[in-house]
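Late entry, evening session. Most of the bench is empty. Finally got around to the prediction I had been postponing all week. Sequence below, unchanged from the version circulated by S.P.
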Amino acid sequence: MNFEGIKSRVDRAESLVEGRLDQTRDRYLALDSSWRQAWTPPRIVIAGLVAGMVAGATQPHRALRRLGKLGGPKSLQMISAVAGLMTSIQATIAATMAEKAASTADEAADTADDAAQTAEGAARTAATGETPRPRAQSQSQASVSPAVAGATVADATASEPARPAVDRRRPEPTYAEQPRPAEAATEMSEPDR
């Protein structure tokens, strides 16, 4: 036989081995999935009962000794230690989550305070008709006329979304009567009262 013939037989044998490996892998995966699907909870319980009965019937003394070792004081100590460990881990996780929630609430409160102060400043400048200026530029722009300043405020408020002019830290006023349902559903009708 020549070299090329031997080489082609080796190539066929290698491809046959690779094919068999693929078949074996596929069949193993199919067996594994069907095995896992076959073990339903009732079947697991029944298999455990049968195995216990067989172990108790064949070697009852050995089975009782093993049960005695499992239920001894050392195993109870281990179970209580593990339970304490799990409790402390859960408490640590809860404390961390509470700390994150508190920091998020603090950030939200700071943002709300900043927004309220900005809205209060915008309302004050809209009422007086002046534009807020930085301190360094206030002397160079002192000669701006009030009409130009009012136009600048109007342009700035038209481009920005409307912000509430109320301070959220103060409680809402009490009303003499309950608002109608349509008015209670909107915030626009509340400040008019």
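Two things to note before I forget:
The chain is about 70% helix and 0% strand.
Confidence is low (pLDDT under 50) at residues 134-154.
Will write this up properly tomorrow.
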